[in-house]
Amino acid sequence: MPKKRSGGGLSPTQQAAKFLGVSVLAGAVLAGIALPAVGALGLAAKGSVESFDELPANMKTPPLSQRTTILDADGGQIATVYSRDRTVVPLKDVSPYMQKAIVAIEDSRFYQHGAVDLKGVLRALNKNAQTGGVSEGASTLTQQYVKNVFVEEAGDDPTKVAQATQQTIGRKIRELKYAIQVEEELGKKKILENYLNITFFGQQAYGVEAAAQRYFSKSAKDLSLEQAALLAGIVQSPSRYDPVNDETEATKRRNTVLERMAAVGDISRAQAAEAMKAPLGLKVSKPKNGCITAVKGAGFFCDYVREVFLNDPVFGKSKEKRAKIWNQGGLTVRTTMDPKAQKSAQRSIKDHVYKSDEVATAVSLVQPGTGKILAMGQSRPYGFKKNETQINLSVDQSMGGGMGYQPGSTFKPIVAAAAIEDGMPANKTYASPYQMAYPSPVSACDGKQWVNDPNAPAKLENENSSEVGPYDMREATAKSVNTYYVQMISDIGICPVTTMAKKMGVVRADGDKMPQVPSIALGTQEMSPLTMANAYATFASRGMHCTPVAIESVSRRVGDKTSSLPVPKSTCSRAMSENTADTINTLLKGVVEDGTGSKAGLGSRPSAGKTGTTDERYAAWFVGYTPNMAGAVWVGDPAHKRKMTGITIGGRSYGKVFGGEVPGPIWRDMMSGALEGKPVEDFNTVHIPDSKPRDRGDGDEDDGDRDDGGNGDNDGFIGGLVGGNNNGGGGGEPTPSFSIPEGFIRGQGNGGNGNGGRFG
């Protein structure tokens, strides 16, 4: 529908013709001199009609979005990610055929006219006047470049993209003004270079370099005549002339470009005829984008790096600013991932747990003293297919992970560290009966107390009925005696334990606060493998806790310039004294040497660690370390539905799964490969005097590895209204005092809050 006339009675076409004529006569083509009002031409800016002269004098040119490359610690490529697949190249690295082809078909008078081709504009205006709309454009290459800048600036916002591409004379006027500026500031060669780098060639390829790689698997500088003609022809309509999906249309369009090149004298008629006979010769490279393309099974590590970038304020004050930088790309992100450690982790996972198994495993490796994350992997690969997932089972929910998993008795060393730091001797002895009610009252933070429900007291028991104390700390830790550690936390109070956990970076995976209940001693609070690996790295570094980091450096390329960005730094602080850490190291060496973690031993290389098996065997853990590397292994059902009894994992059948039975060997094989070639270091240990000796024997191989999460599904029902007599379980499956439908309370037990207690 024709636009309404404004005041003077001239039609839009007549006004435009007058506008152009006056400008030419004045000797300043569209330079803003002697310009009439253009309100009737449909110029809209910021939602209102403005004059040409009121447009900004300078066009903001955003950095071109490019691919981002993620590297491991040795500089090897992990993956490439991008919002738009583009690699910016200088004009000298673009085939001369390509330069000539794009000019011939898009703007053959590019080198003769200024920012605006007056002949083309008048021809288009006349055609549009006849049709009553905007049916033909007259954009020069410079104007097309300007339009692409607007589109690039719009990003992925559909409204802004629509505004940048709307077919109105108002938009054309904007292009005219900015085109004049661009011509004056950049010159023809730079404009051509920018255009070739910004324009879309279909098949997710932005810019000529990405297009050359996509369609011909070669660099833009190596394009032949017929290949260049094909790419130049795609630009007008990437979907219509897509050579991958419509070879016939693409061939016709390529030949049109060749004819045009011959017509303007860029090539001879004979060259054009010969090129037209050639097949398209496609050698398509599929787009390789995102963490799904990561090598060495590092898809989840790659995803974690992205989450760090999008969440850490060091990369931008707001999430929107950080996302904009990430999406613009052009980044080279060097990470902390050790390729040897990552390879060893994935190999061990593959050997022990199949991706099709009913349960999964997730592992994390951390360097003590630096917080560097060395490896991260899981048995269910990064992806969208069956037995694949995009949930990173190794990390907290806020970083792309799940709700976490009860760590069971792998939490006990944190209780021991709090007790020793508080002055408790390492040979402290407790009665440690086979079964007992939770002691009451127990002091908590802020002067509060936890009180067991006298009407339905929460109880716990050890793994086997043969586990009857007294025990000292060394033996109780080696055998993972539940009643010992509950007596310990009841003695020192809950607050020192939660305080120590916080100092060691131990938090719930879902971000909730850790409750003030004594059952936390048995690992009832859901945590991630990365959290536990990093916590044990604190023991390995003799009490210094360093926050985990995944990024070593980031460089950013904008145009021809490359700059470095600040990156998150690990913050190290003392969580406990060296003596406390050395004492824990001494205790946990015993777990590996002759306790529940013996199957995780590294032979002649000193190591320490702790097993964990949660209530009813929904999860099993081994968390261990050497002086130079710490690692956590979790095995279980992420959905918390499959108990690990009567189960096949990695082709082997298990009656019951214990932390030392499945996670332990995974940890052993992972660490053995990751530490290959690294120096053998020993711990600083302390002398722990023996308590009064007792000859009890070690029982069977899983003796003591109850690690049950203490107050799991059957600890008591709804705050102690119904007592649970199996808190801690026994040698077999515990039997609640009455039947509770599975999953009635919560998917992963009761999170440590249902142990029948209350605060006084």
Account of the 3D structure:
This protein is of the alpha+beta class and 760 residues long. It has 21 helices and 26 strands. α4 packs across α6, α12 packs across α13 and α14 runs antiparallel to α21.
Brief write-up:
The chain has 760 residues and is α+β, with helices and mostly antiparallel strands. 33% of the residues lie in helices and 14% in strands.
- Helix segment tally: 21
Distance between the termini: 79 Å
Note the beta-strand portion. Answer: 5-15%
Strand order of the largest sheet: 4-3-5-15-16
Mean pLDDT: 82
**Inertia-based shape:** elongated
DSSP strand count: 26
Backbone structural class = alpha+beta
Instruction: Assign a percent range to the helix content.
Output: 25-40%
Radius of gyration: 35 Å
Largest sheet: 5 strands, mixed
Unreliable stretches (pLDDT < 50, length at least 5) are 1-52, 694-760
Layout: helices, strands, pairs:
Elements: H1 12-25, E1 44-45, E2 48-49, E3 68-71, E4 77-81, H2 96-106, H3 118-131, H4 141-154, H5 158-165, H6 169-186, H7 188-198, H8 208-216, H9 225-234, H10 247-263, H11 269-277, H12 299-311, H13 319-328, E5 331-335, H14 339-352, E6 360-366, E7 373-378, H15 412-421, E8 429-430, E9 435-437, E10 442-443, E11 449-452, E12 459-461, E13 471-472, H16 473-479, H17 482-492, H18 495-503, H19 529-540, E14 544-546, E15 551-558, E16 561-565, E17 572-574, H20 578-594, E18 608-613, E19 619-626, E20 629-636, E21 645-649, E22 652-656, H21 663-674, E23 716-717, E24 722-723, E25 747-750, E26 757-759
Parallel strand pairs: 3-5
Antiparallel strand pairs: 1-2, 3-4, 5-15, 6-7, 6-20, 8-13, 9-12, 10-11, 11-26, 14-17, 15-16, 18-19, 19-20, 21-22, 23-24
Helix pairs in contact: 1-3, 2-9, 2-10, 4-5, 4-6, 4-7, 9-10, 10-11, 12-13, 14-21, 15-17, 15-18, 15-20, 16-20
